[in-house]
Write a structure and sequence with these properties.
Length: about 400
């Protein structure tokens, strides 16, 4: 596991080792006395921690170790600029994944490992690191909302590709305070963490950053939206914050001259662990008739099976840079989708609610989703990425997801 030892944070810059008194051995102080080790020998690393290659060198001798790491990191950056050519031939790459334990992240890790890629996953805590280790990937300690920590994590892993799947979405909408907190954290992750990931990717020698975005941030109105159409920047109140964060994420991902950018605008994800899954937000609220169809239910939902989202992310590692809508072939209005879901669950049909009740604060997001959002086209992904959804019609698999049946 890659740790967060503070002594390495300066290792990316400079070429010369720090001065050393003549004749002084590495483990001696300025006057020849033995230099005490940091707590537990490994500084801020816990006793018993398995040292990675760079930690071993660093803690053997802080002066020579940091100089050695500077030179080694520099050589890794130079080599990794050309490395994707050889890795592409071999079909394997070194991938840093931020957001590897979520609905998309978990199956994405499995697919990357199955493709013989080296996978490092950002882990904020020891518990998260243990989960990553159990998945078969390498935990890389860091915090998505701490700029030095996040940048350090990327640089030390030295990936070819950085994949940004960072979100902190609320599990339920029934607690307004928790829902607002989750939305605020996700906005921060999109707007603050993405530029750090892009900068660190460039410094580490990566050639590409792939970022998760959403397809349901388009201006309302008739017709089908494509990637060139504007985002809903004039959205009301809290909804505007979501759209602005999405815009910041996309601008940061596509704005680097050093690193290629790919933005994947996923549709509404369904699959294990999603809002549509058995026992999760939508089925639970429908069963209690707490999820009404707002207004006339004209909002068009473009759905996406989690497996298709993973397929698109894998394809994005080698496709042309750009922004791509990723959704299935069967957009459906809310007035049809949610009554169908209630019927599949054996629940009563959802109630209807006036738009006026959803005119302030975070409620405007629900009004947009249920009565305003337009359909989007993913034709560009089909033409350029050569991506095709394995589940082009949501009905069969969504029924299985709602009932908690194994996916096929």
């Amino acid at each position: 596991m890659i740790g967060l030892s503070a002594g390495y944070q300066a290792a990316a810059g400079g070429d010369d080792p720090p001065p050393r008194e003549a004749g002084r051995l590495p483990e001696q102080g300025a006057h020849g006395a033995s230099r005490p080790r940091e707590a537990g020998f490994c500084g801020d690393l816990p006793i018993g921690h398995d040292l990675s290659w760079f930690e071993t060198i660093q803690h053997f001798d802080h002066g020579f170790g940091e100089w050695f790491l500077r030179r080694l990191l520099h050589s890794r950056i130079v080599l990794s600029r050309a490395d994707p050519i050889w890795r592409g031939i071999l079909g394997a790459m070194r991938v840093f994944l931020a957001g590897g334990t979520g609905v998309i992240g978990r199956p994405l890790v499995a697919r990357l490992l199955a493709g013989n890629h080296d996978v490092g996953v950002l882990a904020r805590s020891d518990a998260a690191a243990a989960r990553v280790h159990d998945m078969g990937a390498e935990p890389v300690l860091g915090d998505g909302l701490n700029e030095p920590s996040l940048g350090y994590a990327v640089r030390t892993y030295a990936p070819h590709v950085v994949i940004n799947q960072l979100t902190s979405l609320p599990k339920s909408f029934l607690n307004p305070r928790a829902a607002a907190h989750g939305a605020k954290l996700t906005n921060r992750l999109r707007s603050e963490a993405t530029p750090v990931l892009v900068t660190a990717a460039s410094e580490a020698g990566a050639y590409r950053v792939i970022s998760q975005s959403i397809s349901f941030a388009q201006e309302p109105g008739d017709g089908v939206r494509v990637e060139e159409d504007p985002l809903y920047v004039d959205a009301p109140s809290a909804h505007r914050n979501v759209v602005q964060a999405v815009g910041a994420l996309e601008e940061a991902t596509m704005g680097s001259s050093e690193v290629e950018g790919v933005v994947l605008r996923y549709g509404a994800i369904y699959g294990p662990g999603s809002y549509f899954a058995d026992g999760e937000a939508y089925p639970s609220m429908l069963a209690r008739r707490l999820l009404p169809v707002i207004g006339e239910g004209r909002g068009v939902w473009s759905l996406l099976h989690v497996d298709d989202a993973v397929d698109a992310t894998i394809a994005a590692m080698k496709c042309d840079p750009g922004i791509y809508n990723i959704c299935d072939d069967d957009p459906v209005p809310a007035a049809e989708l949610f009554p169908w879901m209630a019927l599949a669950l054996g629940a009563k049909a959802p109630r209807t609610a006036s738009r006026a009740l959803f005119g302030t604060g975070p409620l405007t997001i629900m009004r947009y989703l249920f009565d305003e959002q337009p359909a989007v086209s993913s034709q560009r992904a089909r033409d350029i990425m050569h991506w095709r959804p394995r589940h082009p019609d949501w009905r069969h698999e969504l029924a299985r997801v709602l009932r908690g049946e194994p996916l096929v």
